[in-house]
Amino acid sequence: MADPVLTFSNVSKSFKEIRALEEVNFSINQGEFLALIGPSGCGKSTVLRLASGLDKQTTGEIDILTKKVGYVFQDPTLFPWRTVRKNVELLAELENYDKETIYKKTEEILSLVGLTEFENHYPIALSGGMKMRASLARSLLLDPELFLFDEPFGALDLITRGRLNLELMQLYVKKKFTSMFVTHSVEEGIFLSSRVIVFSGRPGKIKGEFKIPFEYPRDPKIKFSSAFGKLSLEISKVLEENS
Question: Does the predicted model carry a pTM greater than 0.85?
Answer without folding.
Answer: yes
